[in-house]
Amino acid sequence: MNKQDRKYFSKWADRYKDQLTNDIMPFWLQYGWDQENGGVYTCLNRDGSLMDTTKSVWFQGRFAFVCSFAYNHVEKRQEWLDAAKSTLDFIEKYCFDDEGHMYFSITADGHPLRKRRYVFSETFAAIAMSEFALATGDMTYAEKALKVFKDTQRFLETPGFLPAKFESDVELQGHSIVMILINVGSRIRQVVDDPTLTKQIDESIEKLRRYFIHPEFKCLLETVGPNGEFIDTNLTRTINPGHCIETSWFIMEESKLRGWDEELKQLALQIFDWSWDWGWDQKYGGIINFRDCKNLPPQDYSQDMKFWWPQCETIIASLYAYLATGDDRYRERHELISEWTYRHFPDPKYGEWYGYLHRDGTVAQPAKGNLFKGPFHIPRMMTKSYELCLEILDKDA
Questions:
Q1: Is 113 helix (H, G, I), strand (E, B) or coil?
Q2: 216-264: pLDDT as tens digits
Q3: Which of 16, 32, 86, 303 shows the greatest Cβ crowding within 10 Å of its Cβ?
Q4: Distance (Å) of CA 64 to CA 52, 74, 206
Q5: pLDDT score at 340
Q6: Among candidate residues 198, 164, 195, 168, the one with its CA nearest the CA of residue 181
């Protein structure tokens, strides 16, 4: 690595750490962390003021995870660990029903409001528990994480347990849960030696390869038929570049953990390359929300917007791809996405980031959180990217 590149990655490592520790985490600890009831509020206005006390359950797990993740990989700040423990206590006390299925939203003091047909609340609770176990050495949380993970598998495999999204004769499968189980298995496996974790990762990757990757469109589709069939409707032509790019770095991480397994690495890079081509907005910059694999008009109302989280996933993926290959085009992608993201999303007046931009990068609405945006993608990106920059610098030292 030349001197200029070393300076580049050193600069970004410092920037990630500085903004994580002096902006993002302090914002959520000050305005989001509920020290009276436990857990975290996410419905915050631009200045951090509370707009709604409804609590997003999947963000309880996400917040507990990022607090522990930052503690493990950036700085061992007791406040982060305290917030994680407070939120995990809240999760265990209020967020599960009698069958172990988690709610989607609850009141400030833990009264259930809504349950959805998904199991994403479970996946984030599981990675929070495993990361907290890694931070504290308390293996009871590792055991809890594995239990939640296995309950999640059971819910998915039990016919009729989760209400069907469509009528009974409509057979479709979605990318999201397949993708997220790779990451969940990987996070828990750090603290639990259980063969079902690697088995789940292998099965998920095989499903992606067999069903969701469609070379005829050079993409990974969000929704396919039961055997991976392409179905020519508005819904099933959808490409979600952010999800696909997130999937690519999950697979790159698994490749790295297996000594840079070449087959997994090439699969991940192919997904990233295709998804970058679909997602990068040549006119305005940034990763666009949705595309249609036949280049027909996408039907989602937010199809041409720029949300915060796809930019975060692309920053991580570009660093992972550079670490894996040393190819300058991935460093160039990192520079493109990073410069665009940091020029448009951070709020210089009140801190943290906007979440929702129009296609041209202007702010669509200035709130810092809701039931879907909160302390997860941004602090996870900063923590992981800080770690990856250090690995890149260490590899070429």
A1: strand
A2: 999 999 999 999 999 999 999 999 999 999 999 999 999 999 999 999 9
A3: 16
A4: 20, 15, 30
A5: 98
A6: 198
Residue predicted with more confidence, 328 or 162: 328
**Partner residues linked to 239 by β-bridges:** 291
Put simply, whether the predicted model's pTM sits higher than 0.85 gets the answer yes
Tell me the backbone φ, ψ of residue 306, rounded to 5 degrees.
Answer: -120, 105
First to last CA, the chain: 8
Whether 109 and 162 have beta carbons less than 8 Å apart is answered as: no
Residue pair 321/397 in contact by the 8 Å Cβ criterion: no
Q: Closest Cα partner for 222 from 280, 187, 173, 283?
A: 173
Tokens of 366: 């200035």
pLDDT digits (tens, 9 = 90+) for 283-327: 999 999 999 999 999 999 999 999 999 999 999 999 999 999 999
What's the angle, vertex CA 297, arms to CA 293 and CA 302, rounded to 5? Answer: 100
- Extract the runs of DSSP E, i.e. beta strands, from 67-225: 105-106, 112-114, 173-174, 213-214, 219-220, 223-224
Paired tokens of 254:
């698994």
pLDDT (tens digit per residue) in 346-377: 999 999 999 999 999 999 999 999 999 999 99
Sheet containing 356-357: give its strands across: 306-307, 356-357, 363-365
* 8 A C-beta contact, residue 155 and residue 119: yes
Q: Which two tokens stand for residue 339?
A: 């410069």
Nearest Cα neighbor of 259 from 173, 324, 168, 203 is: 324
Q: Does the structure show a pLDDT above 80 at 197?
A: yes
Residue with tokens 């970058």: 276
| Residues near 119 by beta carbon (within 8 Å), at least 6 away in sequence | 101, 102, 152, 155, 156, 162, 177
Encoded tokens for 367: 């709130």
Q: What is the pLDDT of residue 397?
A: 67
- Other beta carbons within 10 Å of 165: 10
54-to-103, 262, 355, 371 alpha-carbon distances in Å: 12, 45, 19, 8
